[in-house]
Automatic annotation (TrEMBL):
UniProt protein name: histidine kinase
Keywords on record: ATP-binding, Kinase, Membrane, Nucleotide-binding, Transferase, Transmembrane, Transmembrane helix, Two-component regulatory system
Organism whose genome encodes this protein: Pacificimonas flava
Residue stretches spanning the membrane: 34-53
PANTHER family per record: C4-DICARBOXYLATE TRANSPORT SENSOR PROTEIN DCTB, SENSOR HISTIDINE KINASE
UniProt-listed Pfam families: HATPase_c, PAS_8
Length: 435
């Protein structure tokens, strides 16, 4: 029999008992001699009314107890199954629901503990930024960021002013390579940001991944390639040198040496040796990795100095300077100056091919980020060559060395910045350094 049928039958029985006891009570009140019967009938009537009321409200109390257990999270509570009329079946159903909810919660808690363990043990430092401040979210962050004291962005300036500014205004899907100051020295690190919501409030997740080990592996591979190139070029240069040396020696050993021919061979030998020495000098310049000595310095005087150097070397070229930000730089002024001088010299050489050479040096400021831009009105750099021009010894000029852009890129990468090439509104190339 279903619960609703049993409930209805029991309710009808209670109502019948109530009606019968009511009739008995009315009958006893009509006779003065039935005092004891009147008391018994009244008691039966009260009991029937109470029983009917309890039966009607029993379901409400059972459901309320079940919902109260859910509300307070007491999933270990069990429903009272006593009372018959299907309440055992109702209690079983509610107990099963509570047990299922408890199993789901325990599974979720185990999964949450697993995810917390993964986050805590992941080898990338993770920070969370919310209205309460900046918090170290895992062991890697607590082991890496040990020199600050506080939860505000300014407290993280000990690792770098740029890093503190980055934390003060995080943007979702933003990423940057920054030079951070840790206890074991300066390191380049990839800093990325994502945005989530927790309890309806925005939370930014920031990951910090030091790149020094990866970069060292890449540098080893690059050094191997450079050594292979160097060996190939030296052998190519030594082959004719050795051949000419043997020829000159054979000529001089003859009884009547051909002195003009021997003199030409020695001259050619000298030229080849000088060419080899020049190549080795250029290789040494490329292979010497820059080591930034970071400090703060004023942007205005620095840009003015670079502009003055350019004007002295290229007096016939019209130079335009733009300053959208006067914030101090945090960089190595010597290395940054060397990079800019190389880039400005390339721009001057490119613009010289135009009848009215123009070069523009701009410091731009957008969305809390700064860029240095060098533009010219020369022939530009084709898009297919823009990744090659930064390679060592690569040049499109007959008298070029292929070193200037490569050294500029080395300085930019060592400083944790970015460098890219685009088309300039002036008609030539635009080289942008993201600081």
């Amino acid at each position: 029999m279903g619960f609703d049928v049993r409930f209805t039958v029991t309710l009808c029985a209670w109502l019948a008992a109530t009606l019968l006891s009511m009739q008995a009570a009315i009958w006893t009140f009509g006779s003065e001699d039935l005092l004891a019967a009147r008391i018994v009938a009244s008691a039966l009537l009260v009991a029937a009314v109470v029983g009917t009321w309890r039966h009607i409200t029993r379901t409400n109390r059972t459901v309320a107890s079940f919902l109260e257990s859910l509300h307070y999270g007491d999933l270990s509570a069990r429903v009272d199954r006593r009372g018959g009329a299907g309440f055992d079946r109702l209690g079983q159903a509610m107990d099963a629901a509570l047990r299922r909810s408890q199993d789901i919660r325990e599974t979720a808690e185990r999964q949450l503990r697993f995810l917390e363990g993964v986050v805590d043990d992941v080898p990338v430092a993770i920070l969370t930024i919310d209205q309460g401040g900046i918090h170290l979210a895992n062991k890697a962050a607590r082991q890496l960021l040990v020199d600050h004291d506080g939860i505000r962005a300014g407290d993280f300036a000990v690792y770098g002013a740029t890093f503190a500014q980055w934390l003060a205004a995080p943007r979702a899907a933003d990423r940057a390579v920054l030079v951070l100051r840790f206890r074991d020295g300066l390191q380049r690190a990839l800093v990325r940001c994502a945005r989530l919501e927790r309890l309806g409030q925005p939370v930014h997740i920031v990951s910090i991944e030091p790149l020094q080990g990866t970069l060292e592996s890449v540098e080893v591979a690059a050094q191997t390639d450079l050594v292979r190139v160097l060996t190939h070029e030296i052998l190519n240069s030594l082959t004719p040198v050795m051949s000419l040396s043997r020829s000159a020696a054979d000529m001089l050993r003859e009884a009547s040496p051909d002195l003009p021919a021997a003199r030409d061979a020695v001259k050619t030998l000298a030229r080849r040796a000088e060419s080899l020495r020049s190549f080795i000098d250029r290789y040494r310049a490329v292979a010497r990795a820059p080591s930034p000595r970071v400090r703060q310095f004023a942007a205005g005087p620095f840009i003015a100095e670079i502009a003055g150097i350019f004007k002295a070397e290229w007096p016939c070229c019209h130079l335009e300077t733009i300053m959208e930000s006067d914030q101090d730089f945090e960089a190595d002024p010597d290395l940054l100056g060397q990079a800019l001088i190389n880039l400005m010299r390339n721009a001057g050489q490119a613009s010289a091919q135009d009848d009215a050479p123009r070069v523009r040096l701009a410091l731009r400021y957008r969305h809390d980020r700064r860029w240095l831009e060098i533009e010219d009105n020369g022939p530009g750099i084709p898009e297919a060559l823009r990744s090659d021009v930064f390679l060592p010894f690569y040049t499109t000029k007959a008298d070029g060395s292929g070193i200037g852009l490569n050294l500029a890129r080395q300085i930019v990468v060592a400083s944790g910045w970015t460098i890219s090439i685009e088309d300039s509104p002036l008609g030539g190339a635009l080289i942008r350094i993201g600081i």
